[in-house]
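thread from #wetlab-drylab

HS: before we spend reagent money on co-crystallization trials with glutamic acid, can we at least see a predicted complex? here's what I'd submit
DV: go for it
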Amino acid sequence: MSAATGAVTDALRDLHARFAAVDEGELADYIPQLALADPDAFGLALISMDGHRYGTGDADAPFTLQSVSKPFVYALALDLLGLDEVSRWVNAEPSGEAFNAISLERRTGRPANAMVNAGAIVTTALIPDAPGAPRFGRILDCLGRFAGRPLDVDERVYASEVVTGDRNRALAYLIRSNGPLPMDPVAAVETYFRQCSVRVTALDLAAMAATLANGGVNPLTGDTVVPEPVAAQVLAVMATCGMYDASGDWLLRVGLPAKSGVSGGLIAAGPARFGLAAYSPRLNPAGTSVRGQLAIASLSRRLGLHLMHNPALAGSTVTLVTTADDLPLAPREERERARYGRVAVVAAQGALDFTAAERVLYALDEPDPQDTGAVVLDLLRVTDIDTVARAMLRSGLARLTADGRRTAVADPDGRLREAGGGAGAPRCFATREEAVAWCTAEPAG
Ligand code: GLU
């Protein structure tokens, strides 16, 4: 076993050992087939953004998705229709109520959010249905892409839910009586029951959560299941509504977007970090796996995963703030040294995002904010520049240019170059020396 496999698996095993003896909670029995589950089953799984899979206990045991299907069908609806259209039908407010409550807006009858049954039934009904692309086929295909393998339906659980699903049917009729249900209530609920009856394992759930955490790209298959903004929207609704009437307390104590289901599945996502899943069918009164909740809460505490914790500050972004006369220069340029005193040089490293770009721009002003001399930004050791950082650096450099300062960038790959080269676009050079030399050269003409 490698070092990482050992360390992560050990952490999961440790949690498993700590909570396996907890036997509080009851199996869901309002869907009779769910009451037949092994009450002692307990699996934990984690999948990293690199697609490394870790599991312990019953991480391979099959069970049905139930409400854990809701965020993924919501993702499909958002992808196909967009946030504005989906929000016309389903709101995104925490209901503070149980999963099967009549959580409908007073005036419009719009369900509170897509994580409670009322909202999930409407979300399912929003998925387009066409002869070549039937509604449930699209849903099953999408769930499988999130999991990274084709999934199937547990027909016994489905049949059991159809027989006992009157409350959900009643909800669907109630929603239609208020207006917002774009299809026949019976058909909507039956498709919803089928999505709840899709069979998965804890490892599948971890892959599904990891795909959301990874900006919509499945880290096992590399498949872009939904665009990044959709993944972020789904995580936001999971964070505020994913644990029903315990959502606020969960966000407060555990601090991770999560979704529970009555078969005992529970997912949590650490954005840009991991997907986590637990399976243990004994539920607390809110309908959440008792052991799953304990294990995920404990892992979050132990590894400092709470979303609202200060993220670890990135290693230093700005590695050098000086003037060119302090730099070792090629002999040819020695003669120019006197003039180099007026060239500010700032070097950056690593991946540049908003925070890093702000630091770089601040450093560009630092040697002497009143200065009118030239400025060189050295990006040779920068590994990545996101779109926000690129726009910030371009506009910061354009401002310096507009102030009459010569600005040059050591940027051999031309990452700051603008298509069509805007008026204020910075000059890009292959090396820092070339950038400095250009800044000190006599103006042409
Ligand atoms: N199929 C279940 C229902 O609608 C899902 C509920 C849940 O998992 O919370 O009753």
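DV: The chain has a mean pLDDT of 89.
HS: ok that's useful, forwarding to the group
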